[in-house]
# Entry
Amino acid sequence: MTHTAFALHPQLADDTHPLTTLTLCELRLMDDANYPWLVLVPRIAGAREMIDLDADQRRQLTDEIDIAARLLRDAFRPYKLNIAALGNMVEQLHVHVIGREQDDPAWPAPVWGRVAARPYTPEQLVARIGQLQAALPR
# Structure
């Protein structure tokens, strides 16, 4: 890992919207209205893999994945939750938490590369962020 300051990868900044800041991660909403989709980005400069985090940071990341998963489950009641840290296109460590339904556009395949992203309209974005922020644990 490098010793530079944390900066959000430009692709993540373009593809997501800020939702809240957790202890370790930025919690962001993926700009794809096809699915309820959150992205956690640990604020650790140079982290590409989970093994780049120390033990306490890995435990904190797991706790924050749990927060994101429960948030989606409670807000949307998805059939299935997909949780993945791939990083093939964006090497900065980030974790996707995606609510899936049996009738969503990509089911049962992974969401990547199946259908074009459907960006939120400004009104949908405000409503979705408000809904999720209201459901966040206090």
In short: The radius of gyration is 15 Å. The chain has three helices and five strands.
